[in-house]
Amino acid sequence: MEHEQTPRERRAAHLKERIYVAFAALAVVLGMMRHQVGPIEAILTLAVTILGLLLAVFTADVVAHLVVHARWMTQPELRHAVRTSFGAMSSLVAPFLFLGAAAIGLLDTWLALLAGAIALIGALVVIGWVAVRRLRLRWWERLLALGAEALLGLAVIGLQVLAHG
User: Fold this and answer.
1) Of 18, 29, 110, 118, which is most buried, counting CB atoms within 10 Å of its CB?
2) What is the pTM of this model?
């Protein structure tokens, strides 16, 4: 018997992809802050990196589905995989807006990257909150889950500093 995803599993898949994209974008933005890049180069670097990540995630979903179910995805399953993978791009609106403002001369590129990094950290906090808000957890368990996500975010920042230091 085929396992159909529950609404909770679908929501978890969407949140998981948004976390992947936000962390990857944060790593790229922090890396670019350590180098002298122009706004167009920053936009292209972020766009190509995230598009590559999303295509890799989508491909992995298709291959995993083939392995688990021994068949191609149905149209509804394919639509869900596309929405899950590429819907995560909504987490990146703010960084691209800031870089767009830098491209037209309203912001310095480094400042746009900083604002984008702050927006991505904010997105991670919101994603974490959305993930735990409806769960039957005690307040301290929610705090623990959000704290773990924050520590991982700090680890990403630390790794970028080490890599580009």
Assistant:
1) 29
2) 0.84
